[in-house]
């Protein structure tokens, strides 16, 4: 029976792709597939890919419109853009639904792989099942940190069509329990099996290396423990942290867990930033600029990642005419000039009657302020600001060294250990761990951090108050999460840093206050499909209003 089901799946897959000579050969073969030719590993890759690189529809809406911009890394709202940078700060059900549907539905792929590999499954394999448990942990951490209470304990259980929404505290505890079980199963094993049972290259996270999976699981456990620490009613974080610190974590010898992107397959199977960058015409209408908070942080600390993250602004001569149609013209012009000053930009100002001209030489890194409104839109000139680097906006089909999708980095592992040490947990030296994290972060973008560590205050936590040290760690975690907007956004909500992002905005002349009334977004609203579950009302009653401003448990 197992053989027959697998054969049907393979035949359906082949038919869906094309009618080829290979299909004819399969169709006429008297033997078909043998036992040593079938494995659950053939169902692994798709479950991995779409968690971090879904197709273009959610990649555009979930990543670019929401998390990357809430993280302060990217901005819209320049004068060539289709939107002001207030987009998504004012609730849009269609964009939220795209994010919710992608995340809510992806669990089915992970569960499918788990069902194949569990005890009694079609391709029972305890080590692949442990991988499925760890993938489930990665998934639910992202899912709950985006929406808060979500179905967890009853998710995917046969016969339960309307699962309960679990409290975030309980989801965290459940994830940690499953991570512990997975790590115990792996033990000292190195591979999932031999021959066709070796996940190998089908595993695009860890290449079939079970010990790397174990370190990934333990580092995720540490992340969740540190995120939960001090939240209301926390009764597990300290134990989880201490347990994680006593076991192997991602480090300089193992490197980070990242997913190399496939730029050959269709963007409707797996997308990248470059698909949006190049697919929506010319002139910058759908392109985005670099956030001022990110650019200024990198520039102010002489961070060598600046040239890897961004490219210099094109520059030019920018004329602003006060024709009396905008009563707040001068305030908005002053704001634009202040943004140049904040980026330490070189420029000249010329005033001729009612026309003010800003001449901004090319070749400078200048960030665009976050969350500007539609009235400020004409003052945010596209050529005035830096754009993402070519590694980020690569064009599909071109041979380039593009950024990998971040799963979990060795840099974050060190930063979490450094934070634990600052808080009096573990036995490591906080500053040494912190600087190891910076070196690992630089490796992701092929730059050296030695001069940065030797000379920059942002790279040193050997002195200062506890709060000052924690701020530097948080900012480094936020910096290393560039292109991982969901995690960068979570860092801001959890730590309050960078403070200028976490503070939100208050000036309606310049900024889009939106449905948040200026507050920093703390979550996404549930998608419209969630409301069909009768347990939705109980979740709202327990967690708070279904609004972007409602703080999640970990951020309280």
Descriptive report:
By secondary structure, the chain is mainly α. Helices cover 44% and strands 6% of the residues. The chain has helices spanning 2-17, 21-28, 45-52, 56-70, 93-117, 126-147, 168-186, 210-228, 237-245, 273-279, 292-300, 306-309, 329-342, 410-422, 430-443, 450-455, 466-480, 485-495, 499-502, 536-543, and strands at residues 74-75, 150-151, 165-166, 257-259, 289-290, 310-311, 316-321, 348-352, 355-360, 387-388, 405-408. The strands form five sheets. Strands 7-9-8 form a three-stranded antiparallel sheet, with no helix packed on it. It has a two-stranded antiparallel sheet with strand order 1-5. Strand 8 (348-352) and strand 9 form a beta hairpin. The termini are far apart. Residues 1-31 have low confidence and may be disordered. Pfam families: SusD-like_2. Residues 1-18 form the signal peptide. It comes from Gilvirhabdus luticola. This is SusD/RagB family nutrient-binding outer membrane lipoprotein. Keywords: Lipoprotein, Signal.
Radius of gyration (CA) equals 25 Å
Mean pLDDT across all residues, rounded?
93
Unreliable sequence segments: 1-31
What is the number of E strands? 11
Helical residues, percent:
40-55%
Pfam family, one: SusD-like_2
InterPro entries: SusD-like_2, TPR-like_helical_dom_sf
Keywords: Lipoprotein, Signal
Protein name: SusD/RagB family nutrient-binding outer membrane lipoprotein
């Amino acid at each position: 029976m197992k053989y027959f089901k697998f054969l049907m799946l393979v035949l359906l897959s082949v038919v869906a792709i094309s009618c080829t000579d290979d299909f004819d050969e399969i169709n006429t073969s008297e033997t078909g597939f043998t036992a040593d030719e079938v494995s659950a590993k053939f169902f692994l890759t798709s479950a991995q890919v779409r968690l971090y690189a879904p197709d273009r529809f959610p990649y555009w809406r979930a990543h670019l419109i929401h998390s990357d911009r809430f993280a302060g890394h990217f901005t819209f709202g320049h004068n060539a853009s289709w939107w002001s940078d207030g987009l998504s700060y004012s609730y849009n059900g269609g964009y939220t639904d795209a994010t919710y549907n992608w995340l809510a539905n992806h669990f089915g792929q992970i569960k499918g792989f788990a069902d194949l590999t569990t005890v009694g499954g079609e391709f029972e394999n305890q080590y692949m099942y442990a991988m499925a448990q760890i993938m489930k942990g990665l998934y639910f951490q992202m899912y709950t940190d985006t929406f808060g209470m979500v179905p967890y304990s009853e998710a995917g259980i046969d016969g339960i069509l309307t699962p309960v929404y679990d409290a975030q505290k309980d989801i965290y505890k459940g994830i940690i329990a499953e991570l512990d079980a997975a790590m115990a199963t792996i033990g000292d094993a190195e591979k999932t099996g031999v021959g066709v049972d070796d996940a190998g290259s089908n595993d695009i996270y860890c290449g079939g290396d079970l010990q790397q999976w174990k370190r990934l699981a333990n580092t995720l456990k540490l992340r969740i423990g540190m995120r939960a620490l001090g939240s209301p009613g926390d009764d597990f974080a300290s134990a989880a942290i201490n347990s994680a610190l006593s076991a192997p974590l991602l480090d300089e010898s193992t490197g980070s867990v990242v997913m190399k992107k496939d730029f050959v397959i269709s963007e409707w199977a797996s997308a990248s930033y470059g698909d949006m960058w190049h697919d929506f015409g010319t002139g910058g209408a759908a392109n985005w600029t670099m956030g001022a908070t990110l650019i200024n942080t990198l520039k102010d600390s002489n961070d060598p990642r600046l040239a890897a993250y961004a490219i210099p602004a094109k520059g030019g001569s920018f004329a602003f005419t006060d024709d009396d149609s905008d009563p707040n013209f001068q305030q908005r012009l002053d704001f634009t000039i202040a943004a140049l000053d904040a980026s330490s930009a070189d420029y000249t100002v010329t005033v001729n009657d009612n026309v003010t001209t800003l001449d901004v030489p090319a070749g400078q890194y200048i960030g665009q302020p976050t969350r500007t409104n539609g009235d400020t839109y004409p003052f945010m000139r596209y050529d005035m600001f830096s754009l993402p680097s070519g590694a980020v906006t690569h064009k599909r089909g071109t041979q380039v060294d593009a950024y990998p999708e971040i799963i979990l980095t060795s840099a974050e592992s060190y930063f979490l250990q450094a934070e634990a040490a600052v808080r009096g947990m573990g036995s490591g030296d906080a500053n040494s761990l912190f600087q190891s994290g910076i070196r690992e972060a630089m490796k992701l973008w092929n730059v050296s951090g030695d001069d940065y560590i030797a000379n920059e205050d942002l790279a040193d936590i050997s002195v200062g108050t506890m709060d000052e040290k924690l701020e530097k760690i948080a900012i480094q975690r936020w910096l290393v999460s560039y292109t991982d907007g969901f995690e960068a956004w979570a860092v801001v909500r959890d730590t309050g840093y960078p403070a200028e992002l976490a503070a939100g905005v208050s000036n309606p002349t310049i900024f889009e206050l939106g449905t948040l009334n200026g507050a920093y977004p703390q979550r996404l609203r549930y998608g419209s499909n969630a409301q069909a579950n009768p347990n939705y009302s109980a979740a709202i009653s327990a967690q708070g209003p279904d609004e972007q401003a409602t703080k999640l448990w970990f951020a309280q």
